[in-house]
Automatic annotation (TrEMBL):
InterPro entries: ADF-H, ADF-H/Gelsolin-like_dom_sf. Residues 253-262 have a biased composition (Basic and acidic residues). Residues 189-279 are annotated as: Disordered. Residues 1-145 form the ADF-H domain. Signal peptide: none annotated. Residues 224-234 have a biased composition (Basic residues). Residues 192-204, 263-274 have a biased composition (Pro residues). The lineage of its organism: Eukaryota, Sar, Stramenopiles, Ochrophyta, Bacillariophyta. This is ADF-H domain-containing protein. It holds the Pfam family Cofilin_ADF. It comes from Cylindrotheca closterium. GO terms for molecular function: actin binding.
Length: 509
């Protein structure tokens, strides 16, 4: 869908990418996304950089809007005595928590036009209302540092205004230096405080370092006295040596060894195999994920679990009311912002998962790849601790699919030289095909149409589909080497959404 940029919006984008511009952020919005050619207008621009963009995205009024734009960060590179500062852009696309599902569905198609005015950005962020972690200063710094090219990043952009972002940023001092008299004026106020030490010769210089130490000493003495008093009380009550009562509460902390075991999906933390009714699978998803791959993985995972008789409990990480539970689960898995994730939870303990304690209410099992691998091995239910795959096999249709999938081969025609939209569609199509349960290394061939050595085969595939220079395209190869065209990206998604893709490619009856 084509977007119409207003004159003001185009000028604001041009101003931001201008190296000499004092502007360090600009955000646009689409007032009417339902138009045939939606108009892009300026929502806000000015100084403030990352913080200004963060505040605008968190604004309640923005939860009904789609925002896009970019902001400036200062890349500081320090090599020995030489410090260089470069101006870099971070691109942002934001969909508020109250944006309609139809509008969110258009974001992938708009991603190219959104990014075109800002070439060469350091990174691209796609944010959904309620999940702003990627725009937090710490997370963003880690993302930019992973890309390399700088010693550190300054989000206040003071470096671009001449101070290099050092702690001693009162850089106005060098400016008055040429005026000799000003240097003397600074000495006069310094001389003024010299007579003042009279009331405080002894207290002022020395008490200042000592209060911190004395406070620490007093605190330590108070703790020691309290500890001794507690020991005396317990010794009177129990008539034992004061060391015994101190050891008894320490035994309560025996629960701590369960922390390293919590993330392990191994059999150690599982309840007895004969009591599977005590466990349930918690599936952490995000209904506002900007990644089509993640959305598809969530859908495929749910079907995978249900096929072996496991009904997962769904927790939406994008729900503001579930933020504490989501953050607790992220801490258990050690992976933030990736969906879906799977945890084994004791029944009735879901409400106890919060952000205050790290006790073993939940055990991290794995991500989508882990789940898919266990399913292929036939050990998914057994490894979760909810039964045995061999005792409760997949439905007949599933077994038939596996048998057919073992011989079926696929060709996904892609392009390594394409824009961001096509690249996202290619990755999504690949994830959908992986969800069919095939061996991706043996049964799927990724054929790059831009590879000169593959031009002959590419042209052959174009002859089968009747469509040239369009990516991705999916083909099946029968046992007799006959190639059949399945469809382009839109057709693959249509078949997948209707649940008929496996049947269409011959993996199900």
């Amino acid at each position: 869908m084509t977007l119409q940029w207003t004159t003001e919006a185009s000028q604001a984008a041009a101003d931001l990418i201008n190296e000499n511009s004092s502007l360090d952020y600009v955000l646009f919005t689409i007032p009417n996304p339902k138009q045939s050619k939606p108009e892009v207008v300026v929502e806000s621009k000015g100084n403030g950089g990352r913080q200004a963009v963060f505040d605008l995205c968190c604004n309640e009024a923005s939860q009904k809007k789609v925002l896009t734009g970019a902001f400036v960060v200062s890349a500081v590179d320090e090599k020995g005595s030489v410090t260089s500062v470069r101006r870099k852009l971070v691109h942002v696309t934001f969909a508020g928590s109250q944006v309609g599902i139809m509008t969110k569905g258009k974001l992938n198609g708009w991603s190219g036009p959104f990014r075109d005015p800002f070439p060469g950005c350091a990174t691209y962020l796609q944010l959904m209302g309620g999940d702003m972690d990627d725009l937090q200063e710490g997370d963003l710094a880690a993302t930019l540092m992973a890309a390399g090219g700088a010693t550190r990043y300054d989000f206040s952009n003071q470096t671009l205004r001449g101070s290099l972002g050092l702690p001693e940023t009162p850089a106005p001092a060098p400016a008055p230096a040429p005026i000799v008299s000003s240097g003397k004026r600074f000495k006069m106020p310094v001389a003024a405080p010299e007579p003042t030490p009279e009331p405080a010769p002894t207290p002022e210089p020395e008490p200042e370092p000592e209060p911190a130490n004395m406070n620490k000493t007093i605190t330590a003495l108070q703790k020691m006295k309290a500890h001794k008093q507690a020991m005396k009380r317990t010794s009177k009550m129990e008539k034992t040596s004061p060391e015994r009562p101190v050891l008894q509460p320490v035994t309560v902390q025996e629960k701590e060894p369960t922390k390293p075991e919590a993330p392990e999906p191994g059999p150690a933390p599982k309840p007895p195999p004969g009591d599977p009714d005590r466990r349930q699978v918690l599936m952490l998803v995000s209904t506002q994920s900007g990644s089509n791959r993640q959305l598809n993985d969530c859908k495929a995972s749910k079907q995978m679990l249900e096929s072996i008789g496991i009904a997962p409990v769904i927790l939406d990480g994008a729900d503001p009311g579930a933020k504490k539970k989501r953050d607790k689960l992220f801490r258990l898995s050690g992976v933030r912002g990736n969906y879906p994730q799977f945890f084994v939870v004791e029944k009735g303990m879901l409400e106890d998962i919060d952000d205050d304690e790290d006790e073993g209410e939940a055990t991290f099992f794995g991500d989508y790849k882990m789940l898919n691998e266990k399913r292929k091995n036939g050990t998914l239910a057994k490894d979760i601790g909810l039964g045995d795959d061999s005792l409760s096999p997949h439905p007949g249709q599933e077994e038939n699919t596996e048998a057919k999938a073992s011989n079926k081969k696929f060709i996904l025609l892609i392009s390594s030289m394409c824009n961001a939209r096509v690249m996202a569609e290619q990755n999504h199509a690949k994830a959908v095909i992986e969800g069919l349960g095939i061996d991706m290394t043996k049964q799927l061939e990724l054929l790059d149409g831009c590879d000169k050595q593959m031009h002959e085969r590419r042209n052959e595939l174009w002859g089968v589909s009747g469509i040239r220079a369009q990516y991705p395209q999916l083909f099946t190869v029968d046992d007799d080497a006959k190639i059949q065209y399945v469809g382009d990206y839109a057709n693959i998604m249509y078949l997948n959404d209707n649940g008929t893709l496996a049947q269409e490619v011959g993996l199900a009856a």
